[in-house]
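Human: Can I borrow your eye for a moment on a structure tokenisation matter? Separate attempts, laid side by side, tell us more than any discussion would. Could you pick a protein and write out its sequence and tokenised fold? No explanation is needed for now; the record alone will do.

Assistant:
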Amino acid sequence: MGRAAASDYHGSVSGLSEEQTRAVVAMAMDLARQGRGEELAEFVQRGLPVNVQDDEGNSLLMLAAYRGQLGTVRTLIGLGADVNLRNDRDQTPIAGALFKGEDDVVRELRAAGADLDAGTPTARQAAEMFGRQGLLEE
């Protein structure tokens, strides 16, 4: 599965130009970081791919998870976000949430089927590094 970068969606977000699409993607990434899930959902409903990635391979879900934006994480999962989509550093959203100590986000991603063995480090390895193994127990 290839990256869903803004340039891959030239003209597909409500007929926008590539430059406009890049601006929309940048705004969406900021919304994910800020936890503005309702606004982000509107972007997706209007044609922005839920798995779009920034220039570093971070998805909307990765940014929301890393920032501890539980409501936005739930919204994105509900919109079909790939919980295992890795960034350019081979990191997954659940490993990012573990790194940041976002326990509720970790639980949500785990409930959504996040692969505990994907990425580098894996969620299991990250949990061990940060003493959060209990979050990953069955």
